[in-house]
Amino acid sequence: MNDRLLGILALVLAAFITWAGWDLEAPFAYEPVGPRAFPMLIALIIGLCGLRLAIKGGHQVEANPPGANGRIALMVLFAAAYAFLFQWLGFIIATVLMTMAVGRLFGGSWTKMLIGGVVMGLLFFLLFDKALDVVLPTGLLGELI
Q1: DSSP per residue over 86-128, as a string?
Q2: Record's InterPro entries (predicted)?
Q3: Do 50 and 113 lie in a common domain?
């Protein structure tokens, strides 16, 4: 696969995201921009990057090093597990587990992964839930938070 093909695939993905997100509307106005803004912004960024690759690309892409494809597949599985467990476990626990799983893929030590996961889970929860007033699921920690 070369850069141009990846750019064209990114443009197709951006078009799909735009198509899928265009009709998103909240039943009531709770934010000034609404739910459509996020997919449109993501589609714009992916589209611009894809356009750059399609126009400027053409370089052959090097093959992944041994074991990289397995780690990529595990990352996809971890992201899917995070999405499914997010509501039940809650943001903090799910984020700690996801951070630790990704850290393990990159060879992190258990101590650093645990500390990093707890700090990231707590800080992002406080930032989004308390400071920015974005409601996040508390899950199993609902009674404590």
Answers
A1: HHHH-HHHHHHHHHHHHHHHTT--HHHHHHHHHHHHHHHHIII
A2: DUF1468
A3: no
Look at residue 61 and tell me if it is in a domain: no
Instruction: Identify the pLDDT of residue 135.
Output: 81
Collapsed DSSP state (helix, strand, coil) of residue 60? strand
Domain with 84, as residue range(s), is 68-141
What DSSP designation does 129 have?
I
Pairwise CA distance, residues 114 & 97, whole Å: 9
Are 87 and 110 in the same domain?
yes
- Kindly state whether residue 106 falls inside one of the protein's structural domains: yes
Q: Is the pLDDT of residue 92 over 80?
A: yes
**In the numeric block, which tokens belong to residue 13?**
């993905």
Task: Report the C-alpha gap between 40 and 24 in whole angstroms.
Answer: 10
Whether 86 maps to a domain, the answer reads yes
Same domain for 47 and 74, yes or no, is no
Question: Which position has the higher pLDDT, 30 or 86?
Answer: 86
Measured between alpha carbons, how far is 87 from 139 in angstroms, rounded to an integer?
6
Q: Are 131 and 114 in contact (CB under 8 A)?
A: no
Q: 42 with 86, same domain? A: no
